[in-house]
Structures are given as structure tokens and as C-alpha cells.
Design brief:
The protein is mostly beta strands. About 0% of the residues lie in helices and about 50% in strands. It is built from no helices and 18 strands.
Length: about 190
């Protein structure tokens, strides 16, 4: 609004909000922030009550949350580098089906850099170990196919993924000059 100054926070609960790398709002009107480098877990600002809190779930609070992603269905995903004792990585999901409580999801490859849920409920995960296509089954990601440079990717490390309006899957890479790749009809085409 005109004439109104923005509110800013540089510190929450004695923790500096430096290098914030994730931000997203859930269905309970909580605005979440996270950092890959400055602090573990995530804080949320309750928009209805005008107050900050820290999520204290074991596991979640002990690891940096690299990104917060809102998917097509409005669910928030918290992407961490947390590893499982049995191998793989853990990411967290906050959705209506979990009453917006954080639910861990195990992923066999990673860490996960981004995700997209398509119109037909397929999950695409951009990871440091390729592009993963699969579905969510309970607390686990069920891998249908892992795409690598052998399948047409420009790099094994995939930074971001999105679905275009026509169902095309687009990915990009963290390396400068790497370009983008699209998957359409089972075919990969890269643009450098």
C-alpha cells in the first residue's frame, strides 16, 4: 500500500536470518523461511497471529532446509540434505492430508534441489544425481525412472524442474552455460 513501509526481520528468536534460501506460505497462512547455510530447520510467521515460531520436529530441526517449494496442489515441500541411516535422503511435505504437519518422505537419490508435481500426480525431482520421475507412496518416493546425461540431460546435476502448460517437463542446471532440457513424449531435447 502507498505510504506504508515494509516490515523487515533480520533476526528471529535470537537467530540471524542470513542467506535465506527458501520461502513459502502454507494453507494455514504461515509464511516459512529457511536457509541452506545460516540455520537448521525453518521458522514460520503466523500471519493470523502476527508472531514467529520455529518448527521443532526431530530430524527436521537438525538439518539445513535448502529450499521450500510449493507444488501445483498447493503443498509445501521442504528440501534438505538430510540422509537416512538406510541410505537416500529425506524431504518433508506439509499438506492438507497431513493437517499441515510435516511428514517425512524418503528419496533414494539426491539431494533434492527442486520438485514439480504434474497434472497427473507424477512427481519430478531435480537432484544432484539426475532427474527422477515417480510417485508418492506413503512416506516414500517410488522411482519410476532416473534420467542422466545418458538420457539426454546436459549434466547429471539438475537444479530446477517445472511442468509447462502442455505437460512438457523442463529442467535447468546449476552450471553456467549448461542450458535447458525439455522432455516431451518421452524424448529429451536440449537447448544450449
Amino acid at each position: 500500500p502507498e505510504g506504508k513501509k515494509p516490515e523487515t526481520w533480520q533476526e528471529v528468536q535470537h537467530t540471524a536470518l542470513e542467506k535465506v534460501t527458501g520461502i513459502g506460505e502454507d494453507g494455514l497462512h504461515r509464511l516459512w523461511v529457511s536457509s541452506a547455510e545460516s540455520f537448521n530447520g525453518a521458522f514460520y510467521y503466523d500471519l493470523d497471529n502476527d508472531s514467529w515460531a520455529r518448527e521443532e520436529r526431530d530430524g527436521f530441526k537438525d538439518h539445513p532446509i535448502r529450499r521450500i517449494v510449493r507444488d501445483r496442489g498447493g503443498e509445501l515441500w521442504f528440501l534438505s540434505k538430510e540422509t537416512n541411516p538406510t541410505g537416500g535422503y529425506t524431504i518433508y511435505r506439509s499438506s492438507l492430508s497431513t493437517s499441515y504437519e510435516l511428514a517425512p518422505v524418503r528419496v533414494g537419490h539426491g539431494p533434492v534441489n527442486d520438485l514439480a508435481r504434474t497434472q497427473d500426480e507424477v512427481l519430478w525431482l531435480a537432484t544432484d544425481d539426475g532427474l527422477l520421475e515417480g510417485t508418492l507412496e506413503g512416506e516414500s518416493f517410488h522411482l519410476e525412472k532416473r534420467y542422466t546425461d545418458r538420457d539426454g540431460l546436459l549434466s547429471i546435476q539438475v537444479w530446477a524442474v517445472t511442468e509447462g502448460p502442455d505437460g512438457t517437463i523442463w529442467v535447468c542446471y546449476p552450471s553456467s552455460g549448461a542450458g535447458v532440457t525439455r522432455f516431451k513424449g518421452g524424448e529429451a531435447r536440449s537447448y544450449e
